[in-house]
Amino acid sequence: MPRLNVILLDKLDEDTYRYVLWADVPVARQSFYADTNKSSVWKDATAQDDANLQGGSVVEKLDSVHMPHNHTLVQLETELQTRWGFYQSSVTANNPWSVYGTQWNGALWSVAGVV
Q1: Fewest CB within a 10 Å sphere: which of 13, 30, 95, 97?
Q2: Separation CA 11–CA 4 (nearest Å)
Q3: Is the alpha carbon torsion for 16, 17, 18, 20 positive or negative?
């Protein structure tokens, strides 16, 4: 489980913000997300945060959002929480490895896959 879900990074202009989302990866798919060279774009990520990204238990997305002029902090927070919810749902639901390892030996198929 990620320690944090949303991290604001900076303002690109008066109404545009860069942010990072961290989402939990289902256990069976973590090896596909694992990469020992990964580190967070957030400079204040802890060693454990980076270890979670490297191990594939957490995945990171860098993005930006443009808010309506004269927006409030609450509106920004609400928008980012909504975006995190969609991102987490997407990571959980999207499984391109559902047939990973399925094989054919010339006569029979051996069905495999990752949950």
Answers
A1: 13
A2: 20
A3: negative
Question: Mind listing the pLDDT tens digit for each residue in 30-51?
Answer: 999 999 999 999 999 999 999 9
Helix ranges (DSSP H) in 17-112: 30-33, 47-55, 73-93
Q: What is the pTM of this model?
A: 0.91
Q: What angle do CA 61, 55, 28 make, to 5 degrees?
A: 90
In whole angstroms, give the CA distance from residue 110 to residue 104: 6
Could you identify the residue written with the tokens 């939990």? 24
**Measured between alpha carbons, how far is 1 from 78 in angstroms, rounded to an integer?**
21
Q: Rounded to whole angstroms, how far apart are CA atoms 48 and 11?
A: 27
Q: What is the Cα–Cα distance from 53 to 39, expressed in whole angstroms? A: 7
Confidence check: pLDDT of 78 > 90:
yes
Residue 41: CB atoms within 10 A of its CB come to: 12
